[in-house]
Amino acid sequence: MFEISPAVRDAILDHARQGAPEEVCGVVLGRHDGTEGGDRYVPCANLAADRTTSFEIDASFMAQARASGALRAIVHSHPHGLDGPSKTDMEQAAEDDVPWGIAVLDPVHRPKLFFWGDMLPVAPYEQRVFRHGIADCYALVRDWYRQERGLVLPLTPRDPDWWTKGQRVIEDNLHRFDFDAFGDSEPLQPGDVLLFQVGAPTINHTGIYVGNGLVLHHLTNRLSRKDVLGPWKQKYHARTMRLRPGALQSAVQSIAEGDGR
Ligand SMILES: [Zn+2]
To answer: Which of 62, 74, 162, 215 could form a disulfide with 229 if both were Cys (CB 3.0 to 4.6 A apart)?
Structure first.
């Protein structure tokens, strides 16, 4: 959870409304000594060629904000309702060391503002509200491994309907981090990653086996939850992946060396 004052939140949403149908951008600054409070929103020009679908912050503005030591977040808007980071947003935010925020406008719902980034605390596993890319099935598996095992799986920038575009979000990452597939005859262990095909010709859903016959998972547009695995496995299960014993240490080391993304 990223805390900002109501005044800063209002300033960001007002900027987003005024700028629609173009994307707007800016930064949240805090105190220069990094202590809590004193937040303010500083809007800046969007330099992108096509401002209705993208944003670009002036490099010298950004350099100044970073050099000030007061940069708390980088913000832009989605005036057309995409309620989650785009693939490009995920690619750029992955390189950053401050949270990113997105103000979402759509004609039906109230405007929203959310922040994400690995520097923020992991949200509780259950009852998460779905949000593509940051509160979806793979994000839950990734958060679980980060919190329970200290293993940071890649962020994997992805489109909202990635499995229809040939993006292999789940399997490739797991193979890269020494997860192996194993047969259905072996009993499951907590932390095993289950891969599902839910109404799709390819793997498009994942969950974590958490023991006691339960799978922790996050379906699109539902709250994250634990379910009895049996029926799920029977209907949708494609494969089970387990971290190779002894693999964790080397994976964690490679992350420390900067290979984690
Ligand atoms: Zn965006």
So the answer is: 215
